Amino acid sequence: MMDTTKYVSLDVSKEKITVAIAEEGRGEPRSFGMIPPHRDDLIFTVQLYFK
Question: How far apart (Å, rounded) are the C-alpha atoms in residues 48 and 1?
Answer without folding.
Answer: 20
